[in-house]
Amino acid sequence: MMNYDYGFFGMHMLWWFFWIILISILFGWFEPVPKRRIRKDSPLDILQKRFASGEITAEEYQVKKNVLASDLANSTI
């Protein structure tokens, strides 16, 4: 009598690879937040959040906002 118990090898192993690849593709495709949709905050947004949270005073906010505005105006020229 021959023993044909190959266990994990043969077609059985191919089916495992098929399901693992399929599941990997599905989970990779449906990310919760795609990387291209993540928006980075601009320097002005960060400054506004710091002012709103009370980290900086109104005077500091105005000075830093003016610096950012002048930097933006100089960079577009």
Write up what this structure looks like.
Helix 2 runs antiparallel to helix 3. The radius of gyration is 29 Å and the shape is elongated. It has 77 residues and is mainly alpha-helical.
Question: What are the SSEs and their pairings?
Answer:
Elements (H helix, E strand, L loop, with lengths): L10 H19 L13 H11 L4 H19 L1
Helix pairs in contact: 2-3
Keywords:
77 residues; 3 helices; elongated
Main beta sheet strand tally, sense and closure: none
Separate helix tally: 3
Distance between the termini: 87 Å
Kindly estimate the percentage of residues that lie in beta strands according to DSSP.
under 5%
| SSE class | mainly alpha
- Helix percent band: 55-70%
One letter per element, helices H and strands E, the order comes to HHH
**Over the alpha carbons, how many angstroms does the gyration radius reach?**
29 Å
Mean of pLDDT: 79
Quick overview:
The protein has 77 residues and is mostly helical.
